[in-house]
Amino acid sequence: MAAERRGKRTHTGRFLTVQTLAGFSQWIDVFLIFSIPSFLWQASPARIALLAALFGIPSLFLGPFIGAFLDRIDPRRILYLGIFARSVLTAAIAFAPNYWSFAALTLLKGLANLCYWPASSIITNRLVGSNERVRYFSSLSALDQVSKIVTPLIAGALTLLLNSQVIFLFSACMTMVAAALLPRLLSKTGLHWKAPTSGEKHSPVRLRDILNLPRNLIVTIALSVGISLSLAVYDPHLARFLSHSGFNPRTFSIVVSSTGVGAVTGALLVRFFFANATVASLVRSGIGIFTIAITSAAVISSFYMEYAGVGTLVVLWLLNGLGYELFMIGSGVNLQNLCPVSMLGRVSTSVRSLQMLVVVTGPSIGAWLISAHSWSMPFVVAAAFAWLLLGLSITGLKANFSRPFGKAA
């Protein structure tokens, strides 16, 4: 039994390595996709926005259908397909001759991501035991946030040695290493996929399907979409707000870095001090800290901005990142615990589609609030919405919050 537990921990650690490499590669891709066209082809803001849309369109419109497909077949096949497609397409982007071929490959890359990440979510459910998920997700979050912070530094250093577009090959190498680790890992995990019976329905998730999910999962989905909307209302306008308030670009970089430091801090706290924390406490404390941070930002931006210095902004956005990360760890564990395995592909991709929808629409809401009212109004609206989410997290969640689906309370 002890040997079996050690074997499972080894497999979990190897899968954590795979997911870290895949995530690091994605951060590099995102950084390069939105920066290289500006320098290489002098792409206009409209063309950069088009790249962002192409990168996210597959998740927005095709997510639920890919999820339904994933629930019908062995997810390992799609995992392999997704990781190899990401590697090949990333290598192809490194040699794209012009903007439009670059844009077409970006669209295909978004589709490859849509295959890989939901499949990896299903594999995570089968590979990582429910008692290990808080520890696993906190470790993955810490490594992912560190990757996010160091990506600009690594990409900047590589530009001194390589042609900027060729840096995509560095990202492709990371996904190829991850792909090389997968066959040996998944062949020895003892995972057995059960084909769906003819009576099982595998259509994209409908409202009725969502309402039949466990109540705590429904509430957590609503909270995750809500907090994404709250962020989307003000976050894209942060740089312009700081500029309007008299701060320089360096301040914006420091504030963004503070968010990453807060997220890493949250993940490390969970990993080393609160690995046995309940999912409820992670979700509620995360939303609580986020609410305090954004409410403070709303008050300061409305009444005391002339007295606010860089230190104040650093503290607020560090708390912002800390709260958001605690919530995301709890939310990720809750999805794994409470979602029926036969619906995990559809539910996870549908949630991603909803989050992508609010990420796309939120900036427009923020822009309207600024033009119709003031620069501080996006923070005020986001804070009001955060208080509603905090109330929902307190009143809408039951005590047996982290009980894995199908197990007795």
From TrEMBL:
It is a multi-pass membrane protein. Its main location: membrane. InterPro entries: MFS, MFS_dom, MFS_trans_sf. It holds the Pfam family MFS_1. Residues 1-401 form the Major facilitator superfamily (MFS) profile domain. SUPFAM superfamilies: MFS general substrate transporter (SSF103473). It is found in: Cell membrane. The chain crosses the membrane at residues 21-40, 46-66, 78-100, 216-234, 254-274, 286-304, 310-333, 354-371, 377-397. Keywords: Cell membrane, Membrane, Transmembrane, Transmembrane helix. This is MFS transporter. It comes from Variovorax ureilyticus.
